Protein 1
Amino acid sequence: MPDENAFVRTTISESAKVMPAQLTSAMEIRSMNAYYGSFRAVKEVDLTIYDHYITALIGSSGCGKSTLLRALNRMNDLVPGARVEGDVHFHGTNIYADDVDPVEVRRRIGMVFQKPNPFPKSIYDNVAWGARVNGYRGNMAELVEGALRQAALWDEVKDKLDQSGYSLSGGQQQRLCIARTIAVKPEIILMDEPTSALDPVATLRIEELIQELKERYTIVIVTHNMQQAARASDFTAFLNMDEDRAGRVVEFGRTADIFTKPEHEETENYITGRFG
Amino acid sequence: MISILTTIGIVVVLGREALLFFQTKEVSLGEFFSSTTWEPQIFEFGIWPLVRSTLMVGFIAVLVAVPLGLATAVYLSEYASDRARGLLKPVLEVLAGIPTVVYGYFALTFVTPLLRSLLGVSLVEIFNVASAGIVVGVLIIPLVSSMSEDALHAVPLSLREAAHGLGATKLEVSLRVVLPAALSGITAAIVVSVSRAIGETMVVAIAAGAAPRNWNLGKDGLFSTVLNPFISGETMTGHIVRISGGDLSYNSIDYDSVFAIGLMLFLMTLSLNMLSRRFVARFREVYE
Amino acid sequence: MTAGEFPEGPQLDAQINRRRRRGAYLRISFLASLIVAILALLTLLFNIVNSAFGLVALESEVAPAALVEALGLDTTSSALVDLSKDDLVAVLRTNVNNNVGRRLERDQRFYDDRLVFETQTKWDELCGRAVDRPAGCSTGARGRDDVYALVIEQIVQPKVRETWLLFDSIFHRAGIEERAAALYPSADLVFRSWLSVDFVTSPQSPQAEVAGVRTAILGSLWIVGVTILFSFPVGVGAAVYLEEYARDTRLNRLVQTNINNLAGVPSIIYGMLGLAIFVRVLEAFTSGAAFGGVEGSVTANGRTVVSAGLTLGLLILPIIIINAQEAIRAVPQSLRSAGMALGASQWQTIRAHVLPNAIPGILTGAILAVARALGETAPLVVVGASTFITADPTGPFSKFTALPIQIFQWTSRPQDEFRNIAAAAIIVLLVLLLMLNATAIVLRNRYARRV
């Protein structure tokens, strides 16, 4: 086991060598383990999320991708019995340190979920809600418009801002959820299979949107769709389940490298569809 | 189908006797709904004195039960651990399982003396609407809290996660997302509890008083009599119990009048229950 | 878009702290509400127990010691309670007039071999009669405790002058003793449990000191018996029909809505329905006249156990149906398909597979519904529970009273002693309900293990 981890680390550092010099890290995850009760769901994760790049987490279902993702903004705190060990550094502070408030963490690291989950409120209120609870003091209408524009939804909804969020189509709802996340001005956006519940056309819109958002935000996206990972991300981490059913990062590197010349056999097996 | 027969039975029986009541020459529909005096001995049949007490009991009960029941529901659904819930819910179920006559005893022997010692014996009569209302409120707490809790539970986890993901605190999630999302379910709970409070009988029969509180707007002050919860007042249900509890002879005007009150009560509670059902249906529509 | 308009740095910390504090306050107030509800329950129970036990000032018509002294016995060494049967009979003989004595003896003899108040010739004549033959002719002699009870009832006649609550009895005993000594110099201050074996086994009485709830308990049991016989089969049948047979037609949906609405109708309305239908329209049946065999003096114009039971049956019918429907719905569809695939008819499938699996749920629901019926008061008052009967109900066509009715009536009495026995009766009722609920839980667990 220690050997394997050493291997992963070298992989990362080797990948890093070929990165441009200005690459800065947004988050650094160091020997992180995530548990549900006594079950270890994710083990010994070492991973770096690079600023203003899109990082994809791939792997077969149940391998702990979502758990890892949710550990990055302490969403796992909400699950009874769940706990995280190890460090997750964000701007040099460990977000699991005692004096860090998860509320602040989640404001800075937003999340978009698998299924669109707008609040049963108007479109406007959906976007404004997060900003309101977080004490936003600027012009709310501007903020809402800006967020909707960034989410490429403004033109479709500008005439019906007071209608319920549920009146939108599935793809629109998901973009509304992205706008809602953007409105609290996070630095990182975590996306948990954001297109798995959508039709192909809506999926395409979201994928295009993600590329646009990259300009402003750091994005981590969980996907079970390898096409999506290959097309949309800059970096890819491949997770797999060990014999003890705990997920671990097998390989991490530039997406192009992972998909063309994986260094690990497991990775190759997975991306060529030999299992999973 | 027996259930249909029961409903038809209720409507027919109440309707027929009520009709008989309104056909007698002593009383007219207009008088029934306009007079503020209920004095069967002198053939005065104005429903308002009874409705006044009924509504007052209902109002006080809701005032007690809704904040307490709702807060209890929020606590149980959003904050309590599974173990705490397992311990606390049976307590509410016990509260719900106690016969209402026991609550009546409680109102008369505990709440009334308490009110009298707190507010003064001269202000609070032995039989008073406030005491009955408070106890009816306690009695419907379990109803409000269990229905509200169901509504809160039905709010999908994904909404809570979304709110947390935006950097909201637990309270903000509970009060500003979950509660509004469950609003129609909670409204349904409140409406049903009003209906239950209006139909509640034994507590008011024991603690609220045994004489209709008649009033004459010209003479009696609005606050000293009409809206004073600390004086006695007989409710619709209380009146039915008192009149029919004695040896009531059939075909007397008293007998018929009781059915007219019953019909009115039935219609009030039925419409409230149907209203509540509509709210629940709307609530389901959103999430299913 | 700049991020400047959100609080940052120390401001952000302060803002989050503020939000956290607000959260903590409200969380406490939510918990407080729950605690208020629990406190209400505890207060209610305390209030009842508080009234059911406590000190009473007992004043006797004749002091027990004086009776002992009159027999020529030493009052310091022997008390009335310790006297032998012979001594007690002697006390009765000297203190009770002959008419009363003869009546007591005709009810039940004092000795098998001799008579105390009657003469042998008169006794033989009485027992030789065909009608109005005294009960004492055919029963055995009274026991010592029975005679002692007669002495207390007929001669000592203890009267409760004042009662105190349990709480005061324990914590302000000195004050109570002082007051009792001043107001009732000849009274004994004794601790009394209003809830006792005698209370449960004695019939109703106008005197709180000796009144009991036997009549009421039997009445309640009879009524609930009729209720179960009526509503269980009908309710389960309706549920099976609605779940297994009924198509999703408008009529059936109407029936379903209707049942749900019926569950919300105030119980007193059912009482009025019962009064109009069972008591009045069906008087011939519910009074038992149609079936003959009931003497005229016993009938109660349809205000009988049957009427009450049927009324409560209608009341809990919707509850039973709804619960049974849920239980039946919970039976997996695969079980039905399996049964049908083996060539069983629909009814065979239901009987062999669906019902056995649903029965724990159905029973639990039914027991809880019966618990509700047991505690119902208002409909019984309206249907016409007798305000005062001392005779136990003997059948479905008897007049009736019920435990909650008794509580209601005693609570409404102004005297303190009645409050005390009302509290004691409440405890009896709550214990009965507790037993029912426990049965429901046991049943559910037993079936749950087997399936």
Note: Confidence is low (pLDDT under 50) at residues 293-299 of chain C.
Protein 2
Amino acid sequence: MAGVRFWREFDTRYRMLATRCSQCGLVYFPPRTVCRKCRRRSVGKMEKVPLPPQGTVLSYTVVHQGLKGFDAQVPYVMAIIEFEGGVTVLGQVVDCDPEDVAIGMEVKPVFRRVREEGEAGVIHYGYKFAPPCFPVCVDESLASPE
Amino acid sequence: MREVAIVGAAMTKFGELWDRSLRDIGLESGMLVLMDAGMETEDVEALFLGNMSAGRFIQQEHIGALIADHAGLADRGIPATRVEAGGATGSLALRQAYLTVASGAHDVVMVGGAEKMTDVSDRDAEETMSFAADQEWEVFFGATLASLYAMMARRHMHDHGTTPEQLAHVAVKNHAHGSGNPKAQCRNKLTVERVLGAGRVAEPLGVLDCSPISDGGAAVVLTTLERAKEITDEPVIIRGSAQASDTLALHDRWSITSQRATRLAVQGALSQAGKELADMDLMEVNDGFTIAEIIALEDLGLAEPGQGGRLAEEGVTALGGDMPVNTSGGLKARGNPPGATGIAQIVEIYDQLKGRAEGRQVADARVGLAHNVGGTGATVAVHILEVA
């Protein structure tokens, strides 16, 4: 395992910044450097924009056989979250009982430890999603622009 | 473009082949197919090999050269090319071989697929399979391939009322088919109750909704239709070959309950073949997870969107039904060594069209379709075969 990896520098993985095509207005998260619709015409014309502060669960699953590095989290909920404007993002849903997750449920992004590479290895951080009412979930900066 | 025919098809047994290496498996399928075609190694002008991830499974890359070498082809210096596209690896190797013969570059081409998954732990094998999804934006966050298909299933149930029992019927049917296939990994029969009662992998999918971890190889020999007619009175012609792509990540799709690449590939293959789906006598379809077969059959056009769950439940897709699907047992029961799967589908169609699918023969089969999917649908290939 390499010690330095480029994805650790993705600001979008920590702050949920999307890109918007200034030609057609389509918004992408994960951010794209080329618009799927305008393609070459969009090169250099994608702008960073914040995602809406809340989304809804489009689909979900409770994972019982997880990937390595997620052992302490099993069972965990993976979901696809749909934001206003049609952007869809995959992530875990946390801070609630897996039994309570449902399609259409509202969630907001939170900043969390995603996994770790063994006891002394690199810790991976990124976003997860949580019910907006959960009291610990107070970090408004996650959904705000720079 | 020249017309291309298959003149030999063979596969190893699929399963946990503890006593054989990747090179053994690749070599065995290659020798079997030459015997089947009645050809000599000297007849082969080029080799294409499907292998998804030997680098992770056995720490070996450069698989084209490896297999060419051990097949005794290295001294002749023929070109050997490895192809990779996740679970669609085998069918893309076939398509490359098809295009090579159709274009006139070579007259006789062997295409093989092989994978050796059981040299690593089950968890390592499952992790590697997940890498056919998007590492940066899916796998990083904990998504397994099963969890992505589980989300398709959950949404399909929500939108269309598909039931866990309907998913289970796909596994029950394909295991019943696999029980008649001596090359299949899983020859045990299942019941709906057993599938539903099995341990959960990613809800609503349980372990019996998922295809197994497999070792195995498969190979076919392609040549021009003209040359095939010198070898056999009944050549199996590749009437259609089409491939399509979609976004790598499931969440980037316009829909998560339909695979657009399947729709594009089947349109392309049918149009090239000048046929309709109803002309097919049987199909081998991606069923890496039970929900995958349901969605595939909707996208292929056998059922209206949302109605695919009824097909296995009502026996339409069983042997003896209107459209037998996965008579080999499918990925679910025949086994799923990803490099070989797409070729094994072709082996099954070939055996059926040749009337030699003992124990599971579809009566009077003349035309068959193979549908192979990589990841959650980012690559799909469809091939249509017809016996002349």
Note: The domain at 4-121+214-231 of chain B is CATH 3.40.47.10 (Peroxisomal Thiolase; Chain A, domain 1).
